[in-house]
Amino acid sequence: MSIGALQQNALAADGRSLNKLKFQAGQNSPEAIHETAKQLESLFMRELIKSMREATMKSGMLDNAGTDLGSDLLDQQLASQMTGLPGGLGDLIAKQLTRQMGGSESDALSADDNALSSLSQFEGLSARRLPGQNKSAAAKTKSDTAAVNALSGHTKIGSHQTQFVKQQTEVAEKVAKESGIPASYMIGQAGHETGWGQFQIKMKGGATSHNLFGIKADSSWKGKVAEVTTTEYVNGKPEKRLAKFRAYDNYEDAYRDYARLISESPRYAKARQQTGSSVAYANGLQRAGYATDPEYANKLSRAITTAQRIQRSLT
Question: Any idea where the domains of the chain sit in the sequence?
Fold first, then answer.
């Protein structure tokens, strides 16, 4: 049976058609992968709508098994109509399925940023408390929010992360205007490299090196140096090594040096051209060898997303 036939014959969340789609997706068909992602998105949206409906106080006068069935069918169709939109959850699911199936990385990355943006809207929807909502419904709504966060790769934001973003925003935006590298990208990378300011590279004696980006001091560096033990990945395995890092007089110098490195080094030319997408930018840095951690791009893109969420909450 073709994908088109499945779409015509399937209900909003038909389990049998979903199983057939999963089988076809296993054959590494891009069309089947995207349709499977759409079905999974529909199931998720149905549960989200259901939880919202359960959180609303019922009148009790006209409620019965018939109205409940009608509401459930309506929810299914509503969920079906809300899925498959560009930049939605389905795109994020399709990206993950494509990666697992060994598909094209460019296809997998194409809608990542838009999908995360859409998920942030779902976050607010599921977290909103409705009039008349009881405690058990509120607890269920809270669990829905956690599910959305898990699907989108979001984690709970700590006070140290918020404080770090507040402290770094002014200087990052100043350098962003000069370099064209988004402030959120630089703040996110600085946050990832330093544990959001908690584990900064120290000079001998304990003073901070102001090195927020883990830039090492090679033979071309004529400034101050901080020598510390760091983790390097060799053939995919972590090893502890003593390394020399650049040291600066202040954070602005660190941002400017980072922006100069990304903008002027041929090594990072492709990454510099991909500032329109945080995921593409992070992958560009990893391909160029910015760090040896094989998961660096994923970790960095999540950190940038966290920085962007905090910035939005502060405006």
Answer: 3-152, 159-314
